[in-house]
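Bumping with the actual sequence this time:
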Amino acid sequence: MPSVEVSPEMSIEYETFGDPSDTPVLLVMGFGAQMIAWHDDFCSALAQRGRHVIRYDNRDCGLSTKFDDHPVDMGQFITAVSSGDIPSALGMLAYTLRDMADDGLGLLTALRIERAHVVGTSMGGMIAQIMAVTQPERVLSLTSMMSSTGETEYGQPSPEAQAVISSPKPSDREGYIAAAERELVWVSKRYGDPAAVRELAANSYDRAYYPAGVARQLAAMILAGSRADALRQLRVPTLVVHGLDDTLIDPSGGRRTAELVRGSKLMLIPHMGHDRPRELWPEIINALESHSG
């Protein structure tokens, strides 16, 4: 897989599917997840619909640039946020979601793509929203999938999901893979597949085990703030996709996103959680094809 420099200090690992002359679709992954969480078969199926599909590793994840010289003590960070000492918390940030949005747009620039359809999932949906509101001229359409608006009243996790996302994973390979099954708490109740969860965990561990980046991405997400006012002004064609089984980002996050973006389409999918079950790929890919047509 190739990598490109999107700035003097930032190298982004990416992979493409399909014909470069087709309509470009940029896939933005979520918190702590590598680009391989966009399954190869999913990307290939979307490419077969006449789309040039681009997936990439966010900074501090996978094979993109790491920020080892900016450690974040999550205990101190959470204490600062909880006590309302936002200036101290901001001082601990290595980067912001806006920086991460600039990475994705920088990748498009490096690939000589002026405009693309942008599809973001979870934290990637937040990043994609920022791309659309800050540089709408680069975004042909926005798809915000299983994401939210940054408003604390919406999209909050269930206590069970919060407990899992807050728990550190074991550092050994076997323990890491076994612990991934905790994530079944937020996947599709009907289609949740423990074997698929373990397979992704194993592939991710073997490709680039890097827990340090998780804390920095989480800090950036926590302090991103509300995008409500910006989303109210957004005029990019927008599709909002959310699974009704999602307990990591409650469906209220998707509903609120669609409420704020004028003219947006809301697609609530039964039996989908904070995942993209293979059984639902046809429905999701049909929607992406239609929205990016």
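The tokens above came from a reply further down the thread. The first helix runs from residue 40 to 47.
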